[in-house]
Design goal:
The complex is a heterodimer.
Chain A lengths: L2 H31 L5 E5 L6 E4 L4 E4 L3 E5 L6 H19 L4 E2 H7 L10 H15 L8 E2 L5 E3 L2 E4 L9 E3 L7 E2 L2 H4 L2 E5 L3 E5 L2 H9 L2 H4 L2 E5 L6 H13 L4 E4 L4 H12 L16 E4 L2 H6 L5 E2 L2 H12 L7 H13 L1 E2 L12 H14 L1
Parallel strand pairs in A: 5-6, 12-13, 12-14, 14-15
Antiparallel strand pairs in A: 1-4, 2-3, 7-10, 7-13, 8-9, 8-11, 16-17
Chain B lengths: L10 H7 L9 H21 L6 E11 L5 E8 L10 H6 L19 H13 L3 E7 L3 E10 L4 E11 L5 E11 L1 H18 L4 E5 L5 E4 L22 H10 L5 H8 L5 H10 L13 H13 L16 H12 L3 E6 L3 E3 L2 E11 L10 E6 L2 E3 L7 H8 L13 E9 L16 H53 L8 H14 L1
Parallel strand pairs in B: 1-7, 12-14
Antiparallel strand pairs in B: 1-2, 2-6, 3-4, 3-6, 4-5, 7-8, 9-11, 10-11, 11-14, 12-13
Helix pairs in contact in B: 2-4, 2-5, 5-10, 7-8, 11-12, 12-13
């Protein structure tokens, strides 16, 4: 891999973010200075403006725009909050500091810009993402939830104080947090030839203990439930920059299936963003058919599970690969679900020794 | 065999035995009634001269009477017309003697309020009353007297004539009575406040037994037109009144009799009525038999062509004074008043005056503050039974944007030659359809005005909030965008703020 090119890509991105924020500021400043009420136009995020794009293999926003004007009494407060958030993000990115959603919520109070609640401040951050076409992590605002990665990849930090320092991601047996420092790091070198994303912490630890990373030459990523955006972006980079396939293991139920789908095709909530999904990633299990084939201990599907299955059946993201519809139908037929841990009935190492090789083989 | 004895009792003896009728029910009610009766006499005495009243009331503690009651000395001083010296003993020492038996609007109607107070004082403390009066002449007359209850006669204990060096005019009444001031206090203070409200041209001073001074100062010297005396309207007479009129009339034929003694009956109306009732115009009224008098009364009520009574015998406060009174006592943000045109019930003319006020010193208490007045007397008891309260409660206030939890006061004043009190206690107005209709119509009128005020206020509030939002956020947008754009100088937003303001003013 070409180390240099990637390094510059991270730095380029930072420049682009700062320029985007400054342009926004200049635009508003100039409108004000010439005696006009400033306004901002951005794509509408209302449900009727969200479309599934088969080409990008993710949700995208349509052509509808909303105009937020300081002239409008109902807009001026969120408008001000947006400008404040932009100015705060600009400060973060140019000083190369990071912040969390919660932190932003509290920081606003120092400027007499109190948000009503966390939700309001999160919405404004999403607005800023939409205006700039960037994700919040780009302007250094991160969510609280953290997932982890483990495997033979050496990264090179770009965060202040660590520039040029490297770390091998096998250094810590619990895995390394996918946080701001890691997501902004360059990939230096690796021996891995695949990525295995795992829904649950228990199994992630089991895989490390069983040396799955060595046996299968794999990077292990813990999504910890629905994968945070930073993690989705990180998986995409592993896939794209290292050019290695991604396999996703989740619980065998509609919810697990959808965790895999969001990594592959993104979410409607992030339709205004790009480069969070990994269209070529594969869902490797636990399938409904696995429950039958491997005679896994299972629980009956309950009402919400069934309801969710019907929703997913109609979801455009589930209409590409015939695998999805087949699995949905199987779930509906057997009316059973199984967790990843269900393999333990065959002993602690069965999943690694028997199931995993077969599944990886299958998906190739 | 039991023997039944029949005895004649005097008027004062009657009221002595039935003092509940006049409101002297218990020690707390009695002290309130005593103050009220004397203050009202004083107000009338000043108004009859068209002089703005100055009334001074002092209640002082004199000692313990029993566990619950005390003995007080009540002194009421006014600047009124004064009582002619020869009438003083009877005016204050003889029940049912007085000037209040003619038909015009007056505060009392029994003619016994003041005397009842003195009578009550005498029976509870057995002390004489002291009356000092002068019409502003060279002499001041001072009487110390008691009432001979059985004979209804004044007993003069002492009489003095003093030289009136300062040309003082007015009346002072001072006597002792038993009462319970502590329990009566809230009502007494309410009474003064409300009296001040409908008598904005009066100075009222009250010193209570603890030495606390309550002062209600006049805001105007304008006074309402005093009422004129009138003869009774044919619709309002009864047999007794007819008999009295027949006794005193100098006329010897029905035509003249009707023309002279009845309100709004002229030559033509009298003739038409006599035709209608089949009575000869030349018949001598003094020769009417008892049956004929009863028939005459019924015919009077049945004849449709009598003109309604006019209101010259009434003395409403007028919209200006009503407004001044409300502003003075409640200091509201808004007040609307309405005087209805004169109307009649059962041959008695009446006028309804209404006021509505918002905010200021009016408390928010979950329901309206209701002030009721009859002939400028505050009605303080039995609010729930009053017709005006019923009308107020039946109104759809929501339609007028008025909510019951708003600080709203409603004032209803009825003036009439005969206020339709429901009971002898004279504390609430009976539900007469004519009265009810006038109150309801007047209420709608003032309600429309308060609606206008509330709508406007809401609008101004909204505008103020709107301006507040712009002037809060625009500078912040300027500040943050300057920083974000990396500029030094803040953009000039004065013009924008001004444009918002101009826009707001135009709307408001």
């Amino acid at each position: 891999m070409e180390k240099k090119k990637h390094k510059s890509s991270v730095m380029e991105k930072k420049k682009e973010v700062i320029a985007g924020l400054e342009n926004l500021g200049v635009g508003i400043y100039e409108q004000l200075d010439s005696g006009y009420f400033p306004f901002i136009t951005m794509p509408s995020r209302s449900t009727e403006n969200i479309y599934y794009d088969p080409q990008f293999r993710q949700y995208i926003l349509g052509d509808k725009n909303v105009r937020r004007s300081a002239r409008n009494i109902r807009h001026i407060k969120p408008f001000t909050q947006l400008v404040w958030t932009a100015s705060f993000s600009h400060e973060l990115t140019s000083q190369r500091k990071t912040s969390t959603l919660r932190d932003v919520y509290y920081s606003a109070q120092a400027y007499d810009m109190t948000f009503k609640d966390q939700q309001e401040s999160n919405n404004i951050i999403t607005d800023l993402e939409t205006v700039l076409g960037l994700s919040r992590e780009d302007f250094n605002i991160f969510p609280e939830e953290r997932s982890a990665v483990f495997g033979d990849l050496t990264i090179e930090y770009t965060v202040p104080g660590y520039e040029g320092k490297t770390l091998n991601l096998t250094s810590h047996p619990d895995g390394v947090l996918i946080g701001p420092a890691l997501t902004s790091a360059e990939f230096a070198k690796t021996t891995a030839d695949k990525v295995i994303a795992i829904e649950k912490g228990g199994l992630f630890t089991r895989f490390i203990e069983e040396n799955v990373h060595k046996k299968f030459n794999a990077m292990l990523v813990l999504t910890a439930g629905q994968a945070p955006r930073a993690t989705r972006h990180f998986i995409r980079r592993l896939n794209g920059e290292l050019n290695i396939p991604v396999y996703i293991f989740t619980d065998g139920d509609p919810w697990g299936m959808h965790i895999a789908m969001v990594i592959i095709s993104g979410s409607a909530n992030a339709a205004h963003l790009r480069e969070l999904n990994t269209p070529d990633a594969k869902w490797s299990g636990v399938w409904a058919t696995d429950i039958v084939d491997y005679k896994l201990p299972s629980d009956p599907l309950d009402e919400v599970d069934i309801k969710r299955l019907y929703e997913l059946q109609r979801d455009p993201r589930y209409k590409g690969d015939p695998l999805w519809q087949r699995e949905i139908k199987t779930f509906m037929k057997i009316k059973k679900k199984a967790e990843q841990e269900a393999f333990s009935r065959y002993g602690l190492t069965y999943i690694v020794d028997e199931y995993l090789p077969e599944k990886l083989e299958e998906k190739k | 065999m039991a023997q039944t004895t029949f005895e004649e009792i005097s008027a004062s003896d009657f009221f002595y035995r039935n003092r509940d009728l006049a409101g002297f029910t218990n020690p707390s009610r009695a002290i309130f009634a005593a103050i009220r009766e004397l203050v009202e006499n004083s107000l009338d005495a000043a108004e009859s001269l068209k002089i703005p009243p100055d009334i001074y009331v002092r209640l002082s503690y004199e000692g313990e009477a029993s566990k619950e009651t005390q003995i007080y000395k009540l002194r009421v001083e006014d600047n009124g017309i004064g009582v002619p010296p020869r009438h003083i003993p009877s005016a204050f020492g003889q029940v049912l003697f007085g000037s209040k038996y003619k038909l015009k609007q007056q505060r009392g109607t029994f003619g016994l309020g003041g005397k009842m107070a003195i009578l009550y004082g005498q029976i509870t403390t057995h002390q004489p009353a002291c009356v000092v009066s002068s019409a502003g002449t060279a002499k001041i007359y001072m009487y110390k007297l008691m009432i001979d209850i059985q004979r209804n006669r004044p007993l003069i204990l002492d009489r003095k004539v003093l030289i009136n060096k300062t040309q003082w005019r007015g009346t002072i009444v001072e006597f002792h009575l038993e009462g319970d001031y502590l329990r009566a206090m809230p009502k007494i203070l309410d009474y003064f406040k409300q009296t001040a409200m409908v008598n904005p041209y009066a100075n009222l001073t009250f010193v209570d037994p603890k030495g606390r001074l309550y002062k209600f100062t006049r805001v105007t010297k304008e006074m309402p037109e005093p009422p004129k005396e009138t003869s009774p309207h044919p619709y309002g007479v009864d047999v007794e009144l007819l008999q009295r009129l027949i006794q005193i009339t100098p006329y010897k034929n029905m035509q003249e009799f009707l023309k002279t003694h009845f309100h709004r009956v002229g030559e033509i109306t009298a003739r038409k009525f006599l035709e209608f009732s089949n009575i000869s115009p030349s018949k001598n009224p003094k020769k009417l038999s008892h049956e004929e008098i009863v028939r005459l009364m019924h015919m009077l009520k049945r004849f449709k062509e009598f003109l309604p009574p006019d209101a010259s015998c009434l003395s409403p406060l007028g919209e200006e004074l009503l407004k001044a009174g409300i502003l003075k006592e409640l200091k509201p943000e808004f007040v609307a008043v309405n005087q209805r045109k004169p109307s009649t019930y059962a041959g008695h003319p009446f006028i309804i005056e209404l006021g509505i006020a918002y905010g200021g010193e009016i408390p928010k208490k979950g329901s309206f503050l209701i002030y009721r007045f009859a002939n400028r007397i505050p009605l303080l008891y039995d609010e729930a039974s009053d017709v005006s309260v019923r009308v107020i409660n039946a109104m759809n206030w929501r339609r007028y944007k008025v909510m019951t939890d708003m600080p709203v006061a409603v004032l209803v004043h009825i003036c009439s030659t005969k206020v339709p009190y429901k009971t002898v206690g004279k504390e609430f107005i009976a539900d007469r359809p004519e009265v009810r209709r006038e109150i309801a119509n007047g209420l709608r009128e003032v309600a429309r005005q308060i609606q206008h005020f509330l709508t406007r206020r809401e609008h101004v509030d909204r505008e103020r909030r709107r301006l507040g939002v712009f002037s809060k956020y625009l500078p912040k947008i300027a500040q943050f965008s300057t920083r974000l754009a990396g500029k030094e100088k803040l953009p000039d937003i004065e013009k924008l703020l001004k444009s918002v303001k101009k826009f707001g003013e135009k709307e408001a």
